[in-house]
Amino acid sequence: MPESDAMTAQPPDITPFFGLRPAPSASSPRDVRPGVSGLSPESMLAWAKEHGLPAYRAKQVLDAVWRGRQEAFADILTLPGPVRGQLAEALRFDTMTETEVRITDGGLTEKAVHRLSDGLLVESVLMHYPAREGARERHTLCISSQAGCAVGCPFCATGELGMERDLETAEIVDQVRHAQRRLAANGQHLTNVVYMGMGEPLLNLDRVLESIEALNDPDRFGLGARHITVSTSGVVPGIRRLTALGPQFTLAISIHAARNPLRDVLVPLNRRWPVEEVVAAAREHAEATGRRVTYELTMIEGINDTDADADALAELLRGDLAHVNLIPMNQVAHTPWTGSPIPVVERYAERVRAAGIAVTIRFNRGTEIGAACGQLAAEHAGQPTPAVVQRRRERIVSQSAAALRGERSDEPGPALNAGEANA
Ligand code: SAH
Ligand code: SF4
Asked: Considering every ligand atom, which ligand is closest to the CA of 232?
C-alpha cells in the first residue's frame, strides 16, 4: 500500500473521555461559524445591519431557514449572489455535515444519526403515530442535547459512551429542521418534540432554553409549548430554574427507582441530588406551573420492578400532580440486564394506580434498530475490549446486588463542573 493510503487507513486521533468506548470520531476541529438556526431574529437583524443590508434581507433569510425547502444559503434565490456568499462565510445554514436515516417498524420509526462539524455523532428519532378514533395523527421527534452524557446510567447506551460536549443551540434545533424537511416532503408536520435523546438537557440548560425559544417562536418554528417535553435525570438546580421561569413545557423526570440505594446505581446523579429532593423540586414545579409532571421509569427485570419498588414509588408520589410512564428497558449491549416482562410491568402499574396515580405503559418503538437513544452512536464507536465489558458487567452486578440489600453506594456522583452544578 502506498504511504498516503496507509495514512488514511489509520483510525482518527482519539480524545480520551470517561465512557466505556473510544469516542466515535471527535476527529476534526469544530466549525466556528454559528449555525443560523441558533440566531434570534434580533441577532439576524443586527447581522444584516452590520453588513449594510436592509431589514427585509434578514427576514428573507429567516423565512428560508424556518419555512423554506432550501438546503444551503446558495439556494435562497431571493437574495443577491454576493449576500448569499457573505452569509455562507459568516454562518452555517445547517450544522449537520451528514445525516444517515434508518427506517423501521414498517415505516413508523425513523432513526437519524447526525454528524457534527467536529465529527461527533448525535441521534434523533422520529416516531409516527397514525390517526386513531378521536386522536389526530402525531409525529414526535426525540432530540439530543449533548454529544454523550456525563451522568452514566448503566442501562443507557449514551451513558456508556461518556461525555463528549454540549450541543450548540443550532445543533439542537437542526435535528428538528431535518425531521421537518422529511415530513414536509410528504405533506406532514412535526407535532411534538421531546428532549429525550442523547445527553442531560438540564446540564446544557442555556442552550436548551434557547433552542426551545426558537421552536416555540411563532416567527420561527412555531411549536406550542404544550407540545414540548424536557426530560431530566434529576438536576435539582435546573428544575428550580425552570420553575422560576413559569409554565414553559412538560417536565419529565427519569425516576427509575424510588429508593436511594438502587437509584444511586441506576442514576448516578442521585448521589448528588437524592430522589426525595428531586421529587420535592418536581412537586414545586407542578404546583407553581399547574402542569402535571411526568415520571419516566425504565423497567429492568429483577432490579427495579418488584412490589416493594412499586409501593415505594406510590408512597413517594401519593397526592402529587404526577403521571408515571413505565417503559420496559431496551436491550443495550454490555449491560447484563433485560427489560421486565409485560405481566410484571402490568402488576407494577396496578399497584401504583391503587394509590391514585395515573400510569401508562409504553412499549418501545424501533427496538430492532436500537431506538433507545445513543445505540447507533455506540455502534459507530466500535467495540470495547472483552476485558472492559467483563469488568463493567461485574461492577454493575455487584453495585446492584449491594443496592438490592439496601446498602448505599459511597462512590461519588458524576464529575460536573461548577457551572453545571449550579445550573
Ligand atoms: N438524560 C435525560 C434525557 C435523555 S434519556 C434523562 O435521563 O431523562 C431519555 C429517557 O430514555 C430516560 O428516561 C432514560 O432513562 C431512557 N432510557 C435510556 N436508556 C434506555 C433503555 N435502554 N431502555 C429504555 N429506556 C431508556
Ligand atoms: Fe444520560 Fe439520560 Fe442516558 Fe442517564 S439515561 S446516561 S442521564 S442520557
From this structure: 1
**What residue type is 204 in one-letter code?**
N
Atom of ligand 2 nearest to the CA of 158: 3
H/E/C letters for each residue in 325-359?
A: EEEECCCCCCCCCCECCHHHHHHHHHHHHCCCCEE
Spatial CA neighbour of 114 closest among 197, 33, 32: 197
Residues forming beta bridges with residue 98, ordered by sequence position: 115
Measured in angstroms, how far is the CA atom of residue 136 from the centroid of ligand 2?
A: 31
> Ligand 1 centroid vs 46 CA: distance in angstroms?
39
Q: Give the active site residue among 110, 123, 164, 296.
A: 123
Q: What atom in ligand 1 is closest to the CA of residue 142? A: 9
Please confirm, yes or no, whether 149 is among the known catalytic residues.
no
**H or E stretch covering 126:** strand 121-129
Number of helices (H) and strands (E) in the chain: give both, helices first. 15, 12
Q: Are 337 and 330 in contact (CB under 8 A)?
A: no
Residue 164 among the catalytic residues: no
Structural element, H or E, at residue 104: strand 98-104
Spatial CB neighbours of 322, under 8 Å, sequence gap ≥ 6: 282, 286, 292, 293, 294, 295, 357, 358
What is the CATH T-level fold of the domain 96-410, as seen in this structure? TIM Barrel (3.20.20)
- Quote the CA–CA distance of 241 and 247 in Å, as a whole number: 11
User: Which tens digit of pLDDT belongs to each residue from 13-57?
Assistant: 323 234 444 445 567 889 999 999 999 999 999 999 999 999 999
pLDDT tens for 129-186 read 889 888 899 999 999 999 988 888 988 888 877 888 999 999 999 999 999 999 999 9
Residue from 142, 149, 153, 373 carrying the catalytic annotation:
373
Whether the Cβ atoms of residue 232 and residue 201 lie closer than 8 Å to each other: yes
Cell output for 264 = 444511586
Give 258's pLDDT tier (boundaries 50, 70, 90). very high
- In the chain, domain spans: 36-90, 96-410
Q: What is the CATH number of domain 36-90?
A: 1.10.150.530
Q: Which atom of ligand 1 is nearest to the CA of 155?
A: 22
260's CB contacts (< 8 A; 6+ apart) are 270, 274, 275, 408
211 CA distance to ligand 2 middle (Å): 20
**Predicted model pTM:** 0.89
Dist. CA 280 → ligand 2 center (Å): 21
